[in-house]
Amino acid sequence: MILVTGGAGYIGSHIVKELILKKYQVIVIDNLSTGHKEAIDKEATFIEGDIGDNQLLEDVFTRFHVDAVIHLAALCYVHESVIHPEKYYENNVANSLQLVKCMLKHNVLKIIASSTCATYGLPTTSVLDEKHPTHPINPYGRSKLMVEQMLADFSRAHGLSYISLRYFNVSGAHPSREIGEDHTPETHLIPSILNHIAEGSKELKIYGSDYPTKDGTCVRDFIDVNDIADAHIRALDSILNTSNQQEVYNIGSERGYSVLEVIKACEKVTGQKVHYTSQPRRAGDPPHLVASSTKIQSSLGWKPHHQLEDMISSHWEWMKRHPDGYQSTP
Ligand SMILES: NC(=O)c1ccc[n+]([C@@H]2O[C@H](COP(=O)([O-])OP(=O)(O)OC[C@H]3O[C@@H](n4cnc5c(N)ncnc54)[C@H](O)[C@@H]3O)[C@@H](O)[C@H]2O)c1
Ligand SMILES: O=c1ccn([C@@H]2O[C@H](COP(=O)(O)OP(=O)(O)O[C@H]3O[C@H](CO)[C@@H](O)[C@H](O)[C@H]3O)[C@@H](O)[C@H]2O)c(=O)[nH]1
C-alpha cells in the first residue's frame, strides 16, 4: 500500500488519481487545511487527520501494511513563510520528522518527498541542476531543505531510502477536468491571472518590475501537474525496486517565462485582456528559477509533455467547469 500525505491537495490529488490508475492501493492522510475531500479519488482510503498527530500515525502504520510513503503534506507559500516562519518550521519540518520517526518505528523504509526549487535561493547559473548550491532565501525553502537534509541523515543512520523531488512551478489541471487547483486565497500566478480575467474586476498586481531579468519581472519554470504525477509514478517504481536510494531530482520544463510573458500567454489562450499594476517586490521571491531536468530524464526516463499554454488552457477549462472550485463539484 502507498500512503500519500497531503493527497487531498492540488498536486497530491493528481498523484493519487495516477496511482489508482496504475492499480496501486492508496491511503490518503490529509487534515483538509488547504485540500478538498472531493479531490480524492473514491478508490483511495481517506483518513482525515494531521501528520503531527502521533497517535493517528501509529494507528495508520499499525492497521495498514505501507510499502512506501509519498509525502506532500506541507505549507507551501513563499510569501506567507516570510511573515509566519514558525508555521513552516512546525508543519514542514517538525511534522515531517514525526512522520519519518513513525515510519522507521514501523520499518517503513521508503519515502518520496515533495521538495522545491526554492531550496536553491539566488541562482548563479541560467539553469539550476541538482549540484547548484542550496542557499534558500525564504523560510519555506529553508524548511524544505531541512527535510531533505534530515532524510539524508536518516538514510545514512537507519537505511531509509528516499527520493526528493524538487518541483518548479506546478500548474494545469487533470485531463478529466474533475480535479484542478483550488486554493483560498489563491496566490499562484496562473490561477491569479485567470481569476482576474474571469472576475473582470480588480487589477492584477505584478510584484516587482525591477529584477535583473529580460523584462524586469520574475522568471519561473512552469511544469504541468500531470507531468509531476508521472514523475512520482516513475520514482515510486524505482524506489520500490531498489534498496538504499538517496536521490534528489529536479522536475521542471527547462523553459523560463517572465511574469509578463505568462500574462501574454493567458491573454492569448482566453482572448481577453489583463489589466495590471506594478507593485513593489514580494519578500522572499528569487528573480529567476529555471530547471535543468537532465538527471531525472536520464535516470527515470521522465520528460515533460505539456507546454505553458496547455497548462493555462487546462486550468481555464477546469475553472469554467468549476466556477466555485470544489464547491461546484456535485
Ligand atoms: N504548487 C507548487 O508549485 C509546488 C512547487 C514545489 C513544491 N511543492 C510542494 O508540493 C506539495 C503539495 O503542494 P500543493 O501545491 O498541492 O499544495 P496544497 O496546499 O494544495 O496541498 C497540500 C495538502 O497537504 C495538506 N496538509 C498540510 N499540512 C498537513 C498536515 N499537517 N497534516 C495533514 N495534511 C496536511 C493540505 O490540507 C493539502 O491538502 C507541498 O509539499 C509543496 O511544498 C508545490
Ligand atoms: O498575483 C501575482 C502572483 C504572483 N506573482 C509573481 O509570480 C511569480 C510566481 O509566484 P507564485 O505563483 O506565487 O509562485 P512561487 O512564489 O514561485 O512559488 C510556487 O512555486 C515554488 C517553486 O518555484 C513552490 O515551491 C511554491 O510552493 C509555490 O508556491 C513571483 O515572482 C510572484 O511575485 C505576481 O506578480 N502576481
Automatic annotation (TrEMBL):
Family statement: Belongs to the NAD(P)-dependent epimerase/dehydratase family.
Domain of life: Bacteria
Start and end residues of each NAD-dependent epimerase/dehydratase domain: 2-252
One of the protein's GO biological processes: galactose metabolic process
This protein's pathway: Carbohydrate metabolism; galactose metabolism
Protein name as it appears in the record: UDP-glucose 4-epimerase
Required cofactor names: NAD(+)
Entry-linked PANTHER family: UDP-ARABINOSE 4-EPIMERASE 1, UDP-GLUCOSE 4-EPIMERASE
GO molecular function: UDP-glucose 4-epimerase activity
Entry keywords, A to Z: Carbohydrate metabolism, Galactose metabolism, Isomerase, NAD
Catalytically driven reaction(s): UDP-alpha-D-glucose = UDP-alpha-D-galactose
Lineage, opening ranks: Bacteria, Bacillati, Bacillota, Bacilli, Bacillales
Residues making up the signal peptide according to the UniProt record: none
EC number: 5.1.3.2
Subunit description: Homodimer.
